[in-house]
Design goal:
Length: 366
């Protein structure tokens, strides 16, 4: 049965698919054989046809396709060319890793389908959202060529409907390692107010962020990635945020200057709105406040939010946060900045490493 194929059989099926020209589907449901980044669409194109095609890709997808083509998600790592940039993305893709780990053709065959990872991958893949970005209707042929191929869940749903129960493979679960949080130290009475902040940070750092399938490889990696963004954003707020009433605010220039390569930070308005919802899972209330100008001036041609107004050093947006009562409310928010400052004094370059663990042992010496 398909659900019991080992990796060698999956590779064999891939080769057969290529030879008889059936669609090649990625692990997460994207149509590799129609993908502008893939080798398949380029095989019979002239140079002039490719140039015209690439212009359409940039318009309808938002990005220019790379010169060196991708060999597809189903290709094992050892067969991925090292000089193809998009292959680095494939190697790091947690959905792909999870599917290979479970030895399944694609995610439709998994007992957890659709898991949190698949749902997250398909949040913004739709014709409606593409047309909203373009500001115009999309012809059906352009939709099929440049949007439909990336609606992975829609493709996986169609595959799933055709599977029998014995073709569904039980997922191989893995144990989730909880984040390392340093216990609150024994301190003098004057420092006990930090216990509320420590409890708040412990709650935030250990939050599952609303995920259900954290015993799967894909969702574990996604949770780790989102926790990394969460803690870096908190660090930026703690160090550079401005307290105004009951909220702490940080501007877009400061965020982009200090995220320090953390992958997964939102780049679009929709991405930030989704992140505000993620923050709410931890007890953090947040808002995105755009600069008071025409939104079109804040959005780049590929749909990203600019971090500053064109031709100026004025921030394009602000993110404001407040803590709910379960996190200690305003008192915890006020202590957050003090905590970051004291960590800098106590640990210097290692301050962020201590922040990630809610490490307050320096209070023992104060």
């Amino acid at each position: 049965m398909l659900g019991n194929y080992d990796v060698s059989l999956i590779r064999l099926v891939d080769e057969v698919y290529l030879r008889i020209m059936l669609p090649v589907i990625s692990k997460c449901g994207n149509m590799c054989s129609s993908c502008p980044w893939g080798v398949w669409v380029r095989r019979n194109q002239t140079e002039e046809e490719w140039e015209s095609f690439a212009e359409d890709v940039k318009k309808y997808v938002g990005y220019s396709p790379t010169q060196n083509p991708c060999h597809g998600c189903q290709t094992p790592n050892e067969k991925l060319a090292k000089d193809v940039g998009v292959h680095n993305f494939l190697r790091g893709c947690s959905a792909r890793k999870c599917a290979f780990h479970n030895e399944i053709r694609n995610c439709a065959f998994c007992s957890r389908y659709p898991c949190d990872k698949i749902n997250a991958l398909n949040v913004s893949n739709s014709r409606e959202q593409a047309e909203q970005r373009l500001g115009e209707s999309m012809p059906d042929d352009k939709y099929q060529s440049f949007v439909r191929i990336f609606e992975g869940k829609k493709t996986l749903d169609e595959i799933r409907k055709g599977l029998s129960s014995d073709q569904i493979q039980e997922v191989k679960t893995t144990e989730q390692k909880p984040p390392k949080i340093i216990a609150f130290p024994t301190v003098e009475k004057k420092h006990l107010r930090y216990k509320t902040l420590h409890d708040a940070l412990s709650t935030i750092l250990s939050s599952k962020l609303g995920f259900i399938d954290i015993d799967t490889l894909a969702v574990q990696e996604m949770l780790d990635s989102r926790r990394a963004v969460l803690i870096r954003l908190l660090w930026i707020l703690a160090n550079f945020g401005l307290l105004d009433g009951e909220t702490l605010s940080v501007d877009s220039i400061t965020i982009n200057n200090h995220k320090k390569g953390t992958s997964g930070f939102p780049t679009t308005e929709g991405g930030w709105i989704r992140w505000l919802e993620i923050l709410s899972k931890t007890g953090i209330r947040a808002n995105l406040i755009l600069a008071p100008i025409e939104k079109s001036e804040l959005i780049t041609p590929i749909g990203w939010l600019r971090d500053r107004l064109p031709g100026s050093n004025v921030p394009g947006y602000h993110v404001t946060v407040s803590f709910d009562n379960l996190l200690g409310g305003l008192e915890s928010l006020k202590l957050l900045h003090t905590f970051a400052t004291q960590l800098d004094d106590a640990y210097g370059k290692k301050a962020f490493a201590a922040f990630k663990k809610a490490d307050m042992r320096y209070l023992e010496k104060k």
